[in-house]
Amino acid sequence: MRKKCNKCGEIKPLKDFYRHKACKNGVMAICKKCHNARTIASRGKHKVKLEKKACNHCGDTYMPKRAWQKYCCDACRKAFERDQKKKGCAAFHQGQNIGKR
User: What share of residues in the chain are helix, strand, coil (percent, to 5)?
Assistant: First the structure.
């Protein structure tokens, strides 16, 4: 059995389409090649550029490893997690205005 790709318009065998239970034929509407090209293009658009930042706790500059790493360097984060397990969050922030309202 063969199917036409909605993206490139080529007629291809079903093995060239990813399976998808919700679709009518049980396969996606676009072929694997078009799907992969679209996925690669999409990843480039959403990529976040990471820049060096200053740690809110110690003041050192650090390069974040992930986009969500916004406020402190790895050393301060590990110290925070260690202190949080032992004494709670307030022990780490003692004397600082961080986390206090």
Answer: 35, 20, 50
**If residue 15 lies in a helix (H) or strand (E), which one and from where to where?**
none
Instruction: State the average pLDDT over residues 55-71.
Output: 74
Q: How many CB atoms are closer than 10 A to CB 73? A: 21
Give the other-Cβ count within 10 Å of 34's Cβ. 19
Total residues found in the chain within this entry? 101
How far apart (Å, rounded) are the C-alpha atoms in residues 42 and 39? Answer: 5
**Digit-coded pLDDT (tens) for 20-38:** 999 888 999 999 999 999 9
> H or E element: which one contains 3?
strand 2-4
Residue spans per domain, the chain: 2-45, 53-92
Element (H, E) at 4: strand 2-4
Task: Give the residue among 68, 72, 74, 75 at the shortest CA–CA distance from 54.
Answer: 72
What pLDDT shows up at residue 70?
A: 64
